[in-house]
Amino acid sequence: MSPSDSVTVAALYETYCKWAEKQRSKPMTKRSFSDGLVERGNAHGYTRGNGAKNVSMFFGVRVRGFEDAPETISEVEPLPSGGA
Fold it and tell me: In sequence order, what are the residues at sequence separation of 6 or more whose Cβ sits closer than 8 angstroms to the Cβ of residue 54?
């Protein structure tokens, strides 16, 4: 990952929901998901999208292809201390 990587909250949450479904797990709400990422030090902000609408983003984060998603949460690498 690079500090210049970014992803919309919507895309990240959609990928998480697909992962949770694959795990036969009920996904947390989008708000809880986002709050959890912020609590773990991931940078959150807004950027100007197409038109006048702001888009909620996480910076220093990227989505791997879903086919590469870990089978279990234990396979997810911990964040480096201090954030993304």
Answer: 46, 47, 48
